[in-house]
Design brief:
- By secondary structure, the chain is of the alpha+beta class.
- The chain has three domains: 1-99, no CATH class; 102-185 and 284-365, no CATH class; 187-280, no CATH class.
- Helix content is 52%, strand content 18%.
- The protein is built from nine helices and nine strands.
- Strands 1, 2, 3, 4, 5, 6, 7, 8 and 9 form a nine-stranded antiparallel beta sheet that branches.
- A hairpin with a 3-residue loop joins strand 6 and strand 7.
- Helix 7 (286-299) crosses helix 9 (337-362).
- The two termini are 48 Å apart.
- The model has no long low-confidence stretch (mean pLDDT 90).
């Protein structure tokens, strides 16, 4: 068998392996945010009818196409995301295999798997689980120790030190951005064109906030204990107590009207009509800090800087497009993790070319 045949065989195996791993990543994307075990039950099941899926209906890429994106048992639609994750993972595994030595390829396969899980969970739930971020940082340190080429050195000790320093740099950079953003833009005031009804309704340990037609989860507004959400109301009602022309100042666990405070644990519903509100906001979630630390642990300090730059640029473009295409609602959120992942993957394949291009701009001679 000649070299071209070997190359084709191993490339095909890399693609198939990526598709199989992508099938498992779908399990992680679905189960981790719900605090479900990724091992039990061992077999995948339909999200709608919960029936276990037999192996011949769970073939990566093939089954989704053959079943036209529907469950064979109940006919419910299976999201395109399942096919997309398998295809993206397969393509990335193939590209990595063709671009890097096999020890580096194995490390980068682990890395892009973490990026994919973090990206799709962040898109859907606006969180990045610690299993991805903290676990990814630890995996990056171990990978750098085992494969020092990841940190551009032959020394295992130097590699793990560089990996750790890059992880710290990634965390600290976004922490400074987070704190600066909170200081400068930590409050957003919204004035409504007309008096608008609102309802705060308890839902277990959390609550729903409905303002006009926009519904949001109460806990989303309170990343810190000192965050406040202020409602300027024409009228308000807390359970059976009625107030006119009142300012409701909410903390995560209590509401105050003037000097009178009420614990939210004692309240089932708050409603009324408001003309203005002030919401607390964060520049990003703290999961993004740990996500960038994991990127640094695998790719080094230059990738940290590039990921922040590329992710911010892409995020700004997407934000601008959403404003041009249609009006963004006041409570809308944009996940930053996927943009960091985009920057990391871009660096993985094009980072060195980017550095050479940039240095050429600085010294064209």
């Amino acid at each position: 068998m000649d070299n071209s045949a070997y190359s084709f065989l191993f490339s095909a195996l890399a693609f198939v392996l990526g598709a199989v791993v992508g099938s498992f990543l779908n399990v992680c994307v679905y189960r981790l945010p719900l605090d479900l075990s990724v091992n039990q039950p061992r077999r995948s099941f339909c999200p709608a009818c919960k029936k276990p899926i037999p192996w011949h209906q769970n073939l990566p890429l093939i089954s989704w196409l053959a079943l036209r994106g529907r469950c064979a048992n109940c006919g419910s639609k299976i999201a395109f995301r399942y096919f997309a994750v398998e295809l993206i993972t397969a393509v990335l595994f193939l590209a990595i295999w063709q671009c890097f030595s096999w020890p580096m390829a194995i490390a980068y396969w682990i890395f892009v798997s973490l990026l994919i899980v973090g990206t799709f969970i962040d898109f859907e739930h606006f969180i990045i689980p610690d299993q991805v971020t903290i676990g990814g940082t630890v995996a990056g340190l171990v990978a750098s120790l085992a494969v020092p080429e990841l940190m551009s050195t032959d020394s295992h000790i130097v590699a793990v030190i560089r990996s750790a320093l890059a992880a710290v740099l990634g965390y600290v950079i976004l922490w400074m951005v987070l704190e600066a953003g909170k200081f400068a833009f930590g409050k957003k005031r919204i004035r409504f064109d007309a008096p608008t009804s609102f309802t705060w309704t308890r839902r277990g340990e959390d609550a729903d906030l409905l303002v006009g037609e926009e519904r949001s989860l109460w806990s989303d507004y309170f990343a810190r204990e000192n965050d406040r959400l202020v409602l300027y109301c024409d009228e308000a009602k807390i359970d059976h107590r009625t107030y006119g022309d009142a300012t409701l100042e909410f903390h995560y666990n209590r509401v105050a009207i003037g000097k009178q405070e009420t614990a939210l644990d004692e309240v089932n519903e708050i409603s009324g009509v408001l003309r203005e509100l002030q919401i607390p906001r964060e520049a990003m979630g703290r999961g993004d800090l740990k996500f960038l630390a994991a990127i640094g642990a695998f790719l080094g300090w230059r990738a940290v800087l590039f990921s922040v730059f590329a992710g911010s640029l892409l995020g700004s473009l997407i934000g601008l497009i959403t404003l041009l295409v249609g009006k963004r609602v006041w409570s809308a959120k944009l996940p930053f993790g996927p943009y960091l992942a985009f920057g990391a993957v871009s660096w993985l394949f094009f980072g060195e070319a980017f550095v050479r291009w940039y240095l050429g701009l600085l010294s064209p001679g």
